[in-house]
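Justification of resources, computational component.

The compute hours requested in this renewal are based largely on the per-chain cost of generating structure records like the one below. Each record pairs the submitted sequence with a full structure-token output. That output is archived, and it is also reused by downstream analysis tasks.
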Amino acid sequence: MGNWRLLKLETADAFTNMAVDEAIMKARIENRVPNT
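The structure output for this chain reads:
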């Protein structure tokens, strides 16, 4: 299954949450980060 990571983030507004999600997704697609 490989390595996973847990991001401990503070509560944020919807726009910030979506931006974080998009950044994680793009980095994951490029194999720059492990599964989150």
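Residues 14-29 form the longest helix (16 residues). The mean pLDDT is 91.
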